[in-house]
Amino acid sequence: MAKHKHSSSRPSRKGTGGDGRLWLYGTHAVGAALANPLRRCRRLLVTAPALQSFQPVAGNGTPEAPSPEISERHDIERLLPRDAVHQGMALLVDPLPAVALEDVLSATADQPNTVIVVLDQATDPRNVGAVLRSAAAFDVRAVVVPRRHAPEATGSLAKVASGALESVPVVRTVNLARGLRTIKEAGFWCIGLDARDGTAIAEAELGGRLALVLGAEGSGLRRLTREACDILVRIPLGGGVESLNLSASAAIALYEVRRRT
Q1: What is the three-class DSSP state of 191?
Q2: Alpha-carbon distances of 190 from 117, 128, 138, 170, rounded to whole Å
Q3: Which residues contact 74 (CB under 8 A, 6 or more apart)?
Q4: What is the pTM of this model?
């Protein structure tokens, strides 16, 4: 049964709930979090109209899932960043448990067509969220980012990821070049995507265990990251366009990889 709103647990900062907790918002992000057994959910705020269509989704959660609290839109908006498109719902959650790179590599050791994505200093949470969404669509096993110079798993990132934050592990590594060496030692072929250099991706030999490595928009791959890759590939462009944004490049490259695996 839905509970009526109360005013406790107001966050000290928009989008956070204290103690490392954060507010997720939007139908897909909230529904996926409620269905994720690894996610600890604390409070669920829903407007009365949103609850009518969302209730079947929320009902798929674990027995520990919080009961919906009927709330007004303005009460939800006070908890979230400005202009957050919350679709009438917000969910207070604990951060997901950290995932170690070694655990991902071990779990996929006997899977010949495993694909992972590595992001080199991609700092825009919306771009990273969009990459996660593409990663989920193309059955990527993990997205690896540096511990520094990468966005936190905020509500805005989760909203753009459209539920993929709950299904694709985000692995944070202290040293990306060292992480790439560990990935290669596990039998992965590291493919660096470069806007200006390398073999056209449609002509490259793709298959087996692959790590697709993408750099930040504008600066691209850093030197040490480029040197750690086994091959550089590019997406041929026309019409005077020099490059695509990170999320578009990731989607095209992942489609090309999966088309041949």
Answers
A1: strand
A2: 10, 20, 17, 18
A3: none
A4: 0.89
The count of domains in the chain is: 2
Distance CA 132, CA 223 (A): 24
Domain boundaries, position 42: 3-93
**HSE on the CB side for 103, CA within 13 Å?**
10
Q: Please report the pLDDT score of residue 106 as a whole number.
A: 97
Per-residue pLDDT tens over the stretch 105-143: 999 999 999 999 999 989 999 999 999 999 999 999 999
What CATH number corresponds to the domain at position 235? Answer: 3.40.1280.10
Whole-number percent of the chain with pLDDT over 90 = 74
Nearest to 253 by CA among 180, 200, 201, 203: 201
For residue 21, which phi and psi values (nearest 5 degrees)? -80, 160
What end-to-end distance do the CA atoms of the chain give, in Å? 47
Q: Is 224:120 a contact under the CB 8 Å cutoff? A: no
End position of a domain, from candidates 62, 93, 124: 93
